[in-house]
Inverse folding.
């Protein structure tokens, strides 16, 4: 693979975003970019590929030239393996970079070696950030292929070596088992999907399942010591304030430490593209 190049959001508008994804300039959908682009049309025409979303949920990449199957990219203080997927993803979510910095700060403020858990962990950006800051991180995802991707990402970030435990499992089942074992964590990260179906056909819907999931997280979070929880999502109908209220309902004693936030991607024009929501809880002392 070629030299490691950074990710950059170049511009957005007309419900699309123009990105420099390492060596490739691409266009992908950005359904909340209702404004007009800042850059001239010639900049948008000078691309290597565009992803077109289909009504079925997937989509098609239209490449104008030969491209690598995968490449390295730098973003948010990490080196990541990127590749175009059928859903338009590149293997990381740029809007999470601010959360990675927040997690690093939380881990560094907790005495000793914090134990952290990343549920629905995908390719591991949050896991790597926590491990890099000194945590013993547990990375959980239900896809073996995604976990292998995350392991390759770890190999690109040597400061995280020997600090990550890999688990391929259903998040709810794992949290229930950790309760029975009496396992406790100092920090938990979760980015649950809007909808999912388990190996035995069980259906997950965030609207009806989020409270139970947060209660399970509470049961394995060590509330007697400094602790944190980061909840993010991209589900329609939720807002930063609604996520914060969900957290407050489960962690009422920590209400003053809960912050609603919007996840943003900065562009090169001094503007930001909103790309998700989150609520963050960090209680530094008890």
């Amino acid at each position: 693979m070629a030299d490691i190049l950074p990710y950059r959001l170049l511009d957005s508008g007309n419900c699309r975003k123009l990105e420099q994804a390492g060596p490739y300039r691409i266009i992908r959908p950005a359904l909340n970019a209702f404004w007009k682009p800042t850059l001239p049309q010639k900049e948008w025409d000078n691309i290597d590929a565009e992803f077109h979303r289909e009504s079925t949920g997937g989509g098609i990449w239209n490449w104008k030239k030969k491209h690598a199957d995968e490449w390295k990219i730098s973003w948010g203080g990490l080196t990541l393996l990127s590749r175009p997927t059928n859903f338009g993803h590149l293997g990381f979510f740029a809007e999470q970079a601010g959360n990675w910095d927040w997690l690093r700060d939380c881990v560094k403020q907790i005495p000793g070696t914090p134990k952290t858990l990343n549920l629905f962990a995908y390719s591991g950006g949050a896991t790597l950030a926590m491990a890099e800051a000194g945590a013993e991180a547990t990375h959980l995802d239900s896809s073996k292929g995604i976990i292998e991707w995350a392991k390759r990402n770890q190999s690109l970030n040597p400061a995280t070596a020997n600090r990550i435990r890999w688990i391929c499992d259903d998040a709810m089942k794992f949290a229930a088992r950790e309760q029975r074992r009496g396992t406790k964590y100092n920090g938990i990260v979760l980015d649950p999907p809007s909808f999912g179906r388990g190996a035995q056909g069980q259906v997950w819907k965030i609207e009806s399942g989020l409270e139970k999931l947060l209660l399970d997280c509470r049961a394995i979070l060590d509330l007697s010591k400094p602790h944190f929880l980061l909840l993010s999502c991209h589900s329609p109908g939720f807002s930063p304030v609604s996520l914060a209220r969900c957290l407050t309902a489960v962690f009422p004693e920590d209400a003053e430490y809960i912050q609603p936030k919007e996840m943003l991607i900065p562009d090169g024009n001094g503007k930001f593209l909103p790309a998700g929501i989150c609520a963050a809880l960090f209680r530094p002392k008890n």
